[in-house]
Amino acid sequence: MVCVMISASFLSGNRQKVFEVLTSSKKPPRPAEAPRKKGREQGSERNPEWTQGLRQLYNSVVEEPLPGNFKDLLDKLDKTA
Amino acid sequence: MGSPARTAGEKADFKKELTEVVPHLRAFARGLCGRPDMADDLVQEALLKAWAAQDRFEPGTSMRAWTFVILRNAYLTDMRRNRFRGDYDEGVAERVLTAPAGQEEPIHLSDMHRALLTLPPERREALLLVGAGGFSYEEAAEICGCAIGTIKSRVGRARAALNTMLTSGSIPQRAIGDGAAHRAILEELDGLAAGNRVAVNQ
């Protein structure tokens, strides 16, 4: 993965964790005190947070540098046509 | 076939458009079959088929949708030949997707990937097309050769299943070694393939 950004997010007190976040989010790292509960409860049924993960999963592959063999294959096909 | 001979310009356009959708084909294939190496093999196979069938591509229509149909058919064929087993890609293991408050463990991208791979294939592909690839229900229905209502229902069921797995943190391991489970998967695939003969079958 080329574009993996590591953002350290320090939650209050003992819940200190480091999260790796996919960069496809252009959003700045979450504010430490952000009330994440709210978004989660609001969107729980219709638009749970993981739905953007599907996009991330897809986009993370789309954004990977293309292995050269694909271009080679197409060039070869082009020449033999 | 039967279409007027393509001009050199049209051929160049085809190659350009085909090249542009390769990253999308890789992403779709990765979602379908899990392992990156197998997914890329599948993409190569689809590219060869798309190239061979290029006279059937209508310029101006969606290259991504057209090639997805080809990729999907190649996937179904290979699945029935037992080439893909929905193996889990360990490369996505450590990325955190969301870190829900009030839950000890954050949801990782790998959890989503693994959960996705436990879905029945027709629901998985429907969710991939709509939820990840951004296709409309109409486009997804066309790609899968089924009714819009069917796609909506598959996406709905897939979402519900993922939601349950991801929020409860209970993602079952797919019983690949289990003969009965494997047979059931193959039967589903036969059903899927039978419902979709619109596309390019090389």
Summarize the structure.
The complex is a heterodimer of chains A (81) and B (202). Helix content of chain A is 40%, strand content 17%.
List keywords for this structure.
heterodimer; A: 81 residues; alpha+beta; two-stranded antiparallel sheet; 3 helices; 2 strands; 40% helix; rod-shaped; disordered N terminus; B: 202 residues; mainly alpha; Rna Polymerase Sigma Factor, Chain: A; Arc Repressor Mutant, subunit A; 2 domains; two-stranded antiparallel ribbon; 63% helix; elongated; disordered C terminus
Topology record:
The complex is a heterodimer of chains A (about 80) and B (about 200).
Chain A: E1 4-10, E2 16-22, H1 36-42, H2 51-62, H3 68-80
Antiparallel strand pairs in A: 1-2
Chain B: H1 8-33, H2 36-52, H3 63-80, E1 96-98, E2 107-108, H4 109-118, H5 121-132, H6 137-144, H7 148-168, H8 179-194
Antiparallel strand pairs in B: 1-2
What does this structure look like?
The complex is a heterodimer of chains A (81) and B (202). Chain A has 81 residues and is α+β, with helices and mostly antiparallel strands. Helices cover 40% and strands 17% of the residues of chain A. Chain B has 202 residues and is mainly α. Chain B folds into two domains: 8-80, RNA polymerase sigma factor, region 2, helix turn helix motif (Rna Polymerase Sigma Factor, Chain: A), CATH 1.10.1740; 91-194, Arc Repressor Mutant, subunit A (Orthogonal Bundle), CATH 1.10.10. Chain B has helices at 8-33, 36-52, 63-80, 109-118, 121-132, 137-144, 148-168, 179-194, and strands at residues 96-98, 107-108. In chain B, strands 1-2 form a two-stranded antiparallel ribbon. In chain B, strand 1 (96-98) and strand 2 form a beta hairpin. The longest helix of chain B has 26 residues, at 8-33. Chain B is elongated, with a radius of gyration of 18 Å. The model of chain B is unreliable at 174-180 and 197-202 (pLDDT under 50). The A-B interface holds A 1, 4, 9, 17, 19-22, 35-37, 40, 44, 48-51, 53-64, 66-67, 69-71, 73-74, 77-78, 81 and B 11, 15, 18-19, 22-24, 26-28, 30-31, 40, 43-44, 47-48, 51, 91-92, 94-102, 106-107, 109, 112-113, 116, 127-128, 131-134, 159, 162-163, 166-167.
